[in-house]
Amino acid sequence: MSTKIIAVPTTTANAFLLVGERVVLVDSGSPGNEKRIFDTLERHGLTPKDLSLILLTHGHWDHLGSAQAIRVLSKAPVALHRADLELASAGQAKLKPYGLGTALLEPYFSSKRFAPVTPDLILNGFETLKAYGVNAKLRATPGHTDGSVSVLLENGDAIIGDVLRGDFMLENRPNWHFFYDDVDLVQSSIKTILDLKPERLFVGHGKPFSFKSLQQQFVNKVKA
Ligand SMILES: [Zn+2]
Ligand SMILES: [Zn+2]
User: Fold this and answer.
1) CA of 13 to the centre of ligand 1 (A)
2) Which one, out of 52, 110, 119, 151, has a CA that is 20 to 30 A from the CA of 145?
3) Residue 222 contacts residue 190 (beta carbons within 8 Å)
4) How far is the CA of 164 from the centre of ligand 1 (A)?
């Protein structure tokens, strides 16, 4: 069973379809993005009923915003790590800026509200997705939020959510994300990812990057 990744053009954060024997949606975009996800399914000859799972990499509005609308139509369960349950039920999140100039973005992102989401499946971050028809497993990669998870596909691809971001124009330019709840935790999550050696890394914001580019640009940025 091979599994491939299809990127979904949502308004703020990237969402992805993992297509194997069934289809897992990784992240759901911002509130109101459900049509973009349904349109992408249709373009690939799929329907909402083909979804076996709506997996959220973490509990921020731009990743879980359309989860409820998609759950209603697809009947697929929503999965989220237990450490982000509070975020998902709050309907809003206060973000912690990281890096120069990022504080300017904070009021906009922290003001975003969403309908609270109650997941059907509560994750510990080490599950496999085989039961949902795709060749992939999860790995807890906290730091951006406590409950952030990454998805590792057997073909060598990975979706790492907001652990890092890509450049918005060019591939292979990994960068720090704009917001981290805990910078030390994110450093160890980046080390975890470096140890796992995925070939291609897809992120919530910006273009994907290769493992080689991550290694070249980040191996000296994380504490030993
Ligand atoms: Zn995001
Ligand atoms: Zn986020």
Assistant:
1) 5
2) 52
3) yes
4) 10
Cα-Cα end-to-end distance for the chain: 37
CB 141 within 8 A of CB 176: no
Strand, helix or coil for residue 7: strand
Q: What ranges do the domains of the chain cover? A: 4-218
Low-confidence ranges of the chain (pLDDT < 50): none
136-140 and 149-153 strand pairing: antiparallel
Give the Cα separation of 221 and 57 in Å (integer).
23
Nearest ligand to the CA atom of 180 = 2
Distance between CA atoms of residues 167 and 213, nearest Å: 12
Strand partners, 152: 137, 158
Tally Cβ neighbours within 10 Å of residue 163: 29
CATH number, span 4-218:
3.60.15.10
- Tens of pLDDT, residue by residue over 124-179, are 999 999 999 999 999 999 999 999 999 999 999 999 999 999 999 999 999 999 99
Prediction pTM value: 0.97
What gap in Å lies between CA 22 and CA 130, rounded to an integer?
Answer: 10
Q: Which ligand is nearest to the CA of 62?
A: 1
